[in-house]
Automatic annotation (TrEMBL):
Annotated ranges, domain ABC transmembrane type-1: 50-344
Gene expressing this chain: abc
A Pfam family per the record: ABC_membrane
Domain ABC transporter: 377-616
A GO cellular-component term linked to this record: vacuolar membrane
Protein name (record): ABC transporter, permease and ATP-binding componen
Sample GO molecular function, one term: ATP hydrolysis activity
Lineage: Bacteria, Bacillati, Mycoplasmatota, Mollicutes, Mycoplasmataceae
Keywords: ATP-binding, Membrane, Nucleotide-binding, Transmembrane, Transmembrane helix, Transport
Annotated compartments: Cell membrane
Native source species: Mycoplasma mycoides subsp. mycoides SC (strain CCUG 32753 / NCTC 10114 / PG1)
């Protein structure tokens, strides 16, 4: 038992030293993710990947052969004879000059194609990962965005894809070049009967690489933490810029500057720790490299003195050996930046996977049945709890029927679940139990979602305005609409005159989130979008709650026109929006569900929750 206890303690120490907790992203598993991404790209672009490997290897091989050719030309000039080219042909000094010229030409060509293919390869990695992230983000459930800061998502979409592509570019080319060049250099040494030097160089190469890798593994945590701090700082800065209005309105510019200075200081401190370790490693490698050169000199001197070889032969061999040693040393020198690039890339790959790996619960069912109209929607005994809080019931078992040409409203205090009804009808969420039947027979979970949503018009409290022109925004619900159809929709929403008063009219760029528009104009734009779409169902989710009374009255008139002849479901915040609906459902607090139903006039006369809200002015 005592021995087992000791073994366990030793194992724990080793594990603690050589592994990470959740804040450290460089583990074999996570580095494997980086490798798998490379394999995935290589499979999709085999010819391009082959080009990278082929031209990089060829570039390194011919670069390593230059010292051999230089040595041969010295020998031919000194001894006035011919030298063999790999037992293939004998060349005189002129022939070796041609060989060097051809070699240099091949190196230049290979260098060009290496740079060209690796640039294309890394660009494809960046583009493919961005598209993969965008697809994953568009497929994700709505609540995914409640747990992820937008700045963090943007940092991963833009920054981490670049880090991954750059890391692959540097790691792949450096690794292939160093490996091919080192193997070629040692092979040439053996073929030229430099056995002792070749063996010593090989042993040195292995030891130096193992030392470099081992040392780097020990300090990788500092590098990863520095990377993570930087990315978190970038995400935080993006989030603050997105909320610049709050900062300006609060007069907290100095506070934000100091706060960001502190965050950047954390990054600087983290990077300083890594830089210290990196400098120590570089110093150690430099010492080992400098130590190798005099050792090789001593070996050469001893060999030539013992064999009584001529100084001419010595000069030729030195012209061969030291450039080959430079090739080996160069391979070691680029190992550290290659490992650093691989670490940054593996960390980026892991952060990207945090966006792409989560599986959504709601799927578009593109192969499902495509409905051509919506006449009726049945909530067939549905209930709902949020997936992350299954114990909290938001909507208890509920059965309702909505029909075309009629209007319905849900009212209740905040948290009663009225907006959740709208989210379920839009299929942002899936009912925990029960089902939503379209036209009384098709389960919403199984039909083609885009085809279904094509018949739904949605107007919410915060109008969704894209960066683009009026035409871009209004056509977003119907991309094939003509400009004339857009104009007619804007006239119905009473937005046309305002648009025509602008210099660029319908081609006016609205800016981020439509910042050039007032709240009422934004809602008119959304209403025009719905008019253009001409849906069977209109869902109004507190559509006028953020507007003042005058603008609300104007918008409400447009909404009344919009919902004529359609099925309309209103999530009510103000009394004025539900006076004329056919059926009102009153939701009680804390997930009790529907506690009353009826028309506005009926409910305000009945004792109960609705009248309490009405008399308390909570629905004004």
């Amino acid at each position: 038992m005592f021995i087992m206890s000791k073994v366990k303690k030793v194992y724990t120490k080793i594990k603690k030293k050589w592994s990470f907790d959740n804040t450290g992203k460089f583990t074999l598993k996570k580095f494997g993710l980086f490798i798998r991404m490379n394999i995935e790209i290589a499979k999709k672009n085999p010819l391009l990947f082959f080009g990278v490997v082929f031209f990089t290897s060829l570039d390194a091989i011919f670069a390593a052969m230059l010292p051999l050719f230089s040595s041969k030309i010295i020998t031919t000039l000194v001894q006035n004879n011919k030298q063999w080219l790999f037992n293939w042909m004998e060349l005189d000094s002129t022939g070796w000059l041609y060989a060097i010229a051809i070699n240099l030409a091949i190196i230049i060509i290979c260098e060009y194609f290496t740079n060209f293919t690796i640039a294309l390869y890394s660009a494809q990695i960046e583009v493919m990962q961005r598209l993969k992230i965008l697809k994953a983000l568009t497929d994700q459930d709505v609540d995914f965005y409640f747990d992820h800061v937008s700045g963090n998502i943007l940092t991963r979409l833009v920054g981490d894809t670049q880090f991954l592509a750059l890391g692959v570019q540097q790691f792949l080319t450096n690794l292939i070049y160093a490996f091919s060049g080192s193997i070629t250099a040692i092979t040439i040494m053996y073929t030229q009967n430099l056995y002792m030097i070749a063996t010593l160089s090989l042993v040195y190469l292995l030891i130096a690489n193992l030392f470099c890798v081992g040392f780097f593994i020990d300090m990788r945590r500092k590098l990863i933490l520095a990377f993570d701090i930087k990315r978190e700082t970038d995400a935080d800065m993006t989030d603050r810029i997105n909320n610049i209005s709050l900062i300006k309105a609060s007069g907290t510019e100095e506070f934000e500057i100091k706060r960001l200075e502190e965050k950047n200081k954390d990054y600087e401190n983290g990077l300083t720790k890594f830089t210290h370790s990196s400098a120590l490693l570089n110093t150690s490698l430099t010492f080992v490299i400098q130590l190798l050169i005099p050792i090789i000199f001593i070996i050469i001197a001893v060999q030539y003195l013992s064999n009584n070889q001529s100084s001419n032969s010595l000069g030729a061999d030195i012209a061969l050996i030291f450039p080959l040693l430079s090739t080996l040393i160069g391979g070691i020198a680029i190992l550290l930046p290659s490992l650093r690039s691989a670490t940054a890339a593996s960390n980026a790959a892991n952060r990207i996977s945090e966006l792409t790996d989560p599986k959504p619960m709601v799927h578009s069912n593109l192969k499902g049945y495509k409905i051509d109209k919506i006449d009726k929607i049945v909530l067939d005994n549905i209930s709902f709890s949020y997936p992350k809080k299954p114990e909290r019931i938001v909507i208890p078992p509920t059965k309702l029927i909505f029909e075309k040409g009629k209007s319905y409203a849900f009212v209740g205090q905040t948290g009663s679940g009225k907006t959740t009804i709208a989210k379920l009808l839009l299929r942002f969420y899936v009912p925990t139990d029960g089902k939503i039947l379209i036209n009384g027979e098709y389960n919403l979970n199984r039909i083609n979602l885009p085809a279904y949503l094509n018949h739904i018009g949605y107007v919410e409290q915060e109008p969704q305005i894209l960066y683009g022109t009026f035409l871009d925004n209004i056509k977003y619900s119907k991309f094939d609409a003509t400009d004339e159809e857009v104009i007619q929709a804007c006239k119905k929403a009473e937005l046309h005159d305002f648009i025509m008063s602008l210099p660029d009219q319908y081609h006016t760029v609205l800016g981020q989130r439509g910042f050039i528009l007032s709240g009422g104009q934004k809602q008119r734009l959304v209403i025009a979008r719905v008019f253009l779409k001409d849906p069977d169902v209109v869902i109004l989710d507190e559509a006028t709650s953020a507007l003042d009374n005058v603008v609300e009255k104007e918008i409400q008139d447009k909404l009344e026109e919009l919902i004529k002849g359609r099925m309309c479901i209103t999530i009510a915040h103000r009394l004025t929006t539900i006076k004329n609906v056919d059926e009102i459902y009153v939701l009680g607090p804390n997930g009790v569900g529907i506690v009353q139903m009826g028309t506005f006039d009926q409910l305000k006369k009945q004792p109960g929750h609705f009248r309490n809200l009405y008399e308390a002015g909570l629905m004004e």
